[in-house]
Automatic annotation (TrEMBL):
Keywords: Coiled coil, Nucleotidyltransferase, RNA-directed DNA polymerase, Transferase. SUPFAM superfamilies: DNA/RNA polymerases. This is Putative RNA-directed DNA polymerase from transposon BS. Residues 36-63 form a coiled coil. It comes from the Eukaryota. Residues 197-359 form the Reverse transcriptase domain. It comes from Araneus ventricosus. The gene is RTase_455. GO terms for molecular function: RNA-directed DNA polymerase activity.
Length: 359
């Protein structure tokens, strides 16, 4: 009875405050007195505080009333642990999509167009890239190149596994980071053998090249249009573990040959956007001290990762004299990738990514 009366008292207070707020708001709109505006802000803050307190009290009462015997407690726990994303009716090419399965297929078809090359043909460049990649594919690997490969050790795999975040979502194989963290030593040795064979045969498993896409609505966009959803790609945990070792090999080559320019801060260890901002501020400050103006041009490339020309990327890696065994593995990693959109418990058919790289 005390809780009920307290809740009633809070709701009554909120109603009274709303009436006072409406009167104060009219007075502010008429008189434009700063003191009235201050009072209006105070009332609005108080309303928000009481409303939050009221909702917390209602939730507490609801949780206290749950019973373990009728299953209500477990159903509530499941809802609280996993928040289901609500996607409204979508307007696709084939009409309206109502069910989860049709919504997933509609967004998948939209993304299939998104993961495609821009229509900017340049015959000379295309011919150069085609010739370069075809010539590389026909070159055989020498025994020296294969024998010189440094094997991955189980200790290195364990080190990477320790850094896994157990809260990260799993991929299509449903193997979570928590599962990987609890693998016995024998399985660590087996996985290390798999990684070493991936490097030895320059082949990335096809089973790891299909990503699950979770669509997230872009801020301020129309939720009924499938192209307004940002694709969040969920990759296999084992795939991401292997990627760490591929990236290490690639970074070694880039660092040894000084390929990356010093001004590139993205995707590099110990460098963040904060450092880049600091660098810009230093330029501006230096300009002020010398009595000069500093100009800057900022470019935002639309669908930058989603429309990467894979053959063009491989061509660039050839020009940067990437070790042949590593380049073959990267080629295997980038090509023939697929994705499937998941909404609720429904998943679309796997679609081919004709362009773009996994993020």
């Amino acid at each position: 009875m005390v809780k009920k009366s307290t809740a009633t008292y809070i709701h009554a207070n909120i109603k009274d405050l709303i009436k006072t707020r409406n009167k104060t708001k009219k007075a502010w709109q008429t008189l434009r007195n700063p003191l009235i505006k201050t009072e209006l802000n105070r009332i609005e803050k108080l309303i928000k505080k009481l409303d939050k307190h009221s909702r917390q009290k209602d939730q507490t009462e609801e949780l206290e009333a749950l019973n373990t015997e009728d299953g209500k407690l477990w159903r509530k726990a499941k809802i609280m642990r996993k928040k289901e994303q609500k996607i409204p009716v979508l307007l696709g090419e084939n009409g309206f999509a109502y069910s989860y399965s049709i919504k997933a297929e509609t967004i998948a078809l939209s993304l299939e167009k998104q993961f495609s090359l821009n229509d900017l043909s340049h015959r000379e460049t295309e011919n150069e890239v085609k010739k370069s990649t075809e010539n590389f594919s026909t070159l055989p690997l020498t025994n020296n190149q294969i024998d010189n490969l440094k094997c991955i050790q189980p200790s290195e795999v364990i080190k990477v596994i320790k850094n896994l975040n157990i809260k990260k979502a799993c991929g299509l194989d449903c193997i979570t980071n928590k599962m990987v963290k609890n693998l016995p030593c024998t399985m660590i040795f087996e996985f290390t053998e798999i990684v070493n064979n991936i490097f030895k045969f320059n082949y990335f498993p096809k089973a790891w090249k299909t990503a699950v896409v979770v669509p997230i609505l872009k801020p301020g966009k129309d939720p009924t249009q499938p192209e307004n959803y940002r694709p969040i790609l969920l990759l296999s945990t084992l795939s991401k573990l292997t990627e760490n070792f591929i990236l290490d090999k690639l970074n070694e080559h880039l660092a040894e040959n000084k390929i990356l320019c010093p001004e590139q801060f993205g995707f590099r260890k110990s460098l963040t956007t904060t450092h880049q901002l600091l660098r810009v501020v230093e330029y501006i400050t230096s300009g002020f001290e010398k009595g000069k103006c500093t100009g800057a041009v900022f470019l935002d490339v639309q669908k930058a990762f989603d429309r990467v020309w894979i053959q063009g990327l491989i061509h660039k890696l050839i020009r940067y004299k990437t070790p042949p065994h590593l380049l073959r593995l990267l080629k295997s990693y980038l090509e023939e990738r697929k994705f499937a959109v998941k909404i609720g418990n429904s998943i679309s058919e796997a679609k081919i990514m004709r362009a773009g790289i996994p993020q």
